[in-house]
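dude i think i finally got it to work??
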Amino acid sequence: VERVYAFFSVFAGYIGKLAYPYPLIFLRQFSVKSDLLNGEFLSAFGAFLVFFAALYVFVKKKQKLLAFSLIWLLSFLLPVLVLFWASGGNFYAERFLFVPGIGFSLFIASFLAYLWERERTRILAVSLLGILIVVSWAVVFPRNTIWKDEVPFFRSTLSLNLDAYHIRESLAATLRQRGDVEAAKAEYEEIIERNP
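look at this
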């Protein structure tokens, strides 16, 4: 039951992060539950059904590019969804979206091209593209300052996921290597305090 819950919930979470990737975080907190009748699971299952309904419609209407984009997305998410237990609990992370993101981008581009082909919706296509560019820049560009160095990267991850013990351990080791022994000691003590 927990695997079923994780499969559908992580699928919906990844689709949500592709559509709106904020806040960006290296390691996400995810707790596996066994209640298949709660609202979170039912909405995740509904998202999965909508995804496959859209795929079915695109295949039936011979919208090959749209169907291909969804098949691409699903094909590269399936290993994480099916083998989530093999990742040691780290199966809900940004890095698993790089390749599926190609399928998502192809889907968005196909949708915008569809709008562009119709005279009445060209302004809508240009407006949506402009909004997409501005929002993407606003979400992704500030993340560059975090990725440029290990310490801000680790601290950013820990600000959103306090229980990421191996991230905290990496932060402590990095601080120790840089000569900041007191800060490293404080991080190691935090690990012991949070996970005795």
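DSSP finds nine helices and no strands in the chain.
im so relieved honestly
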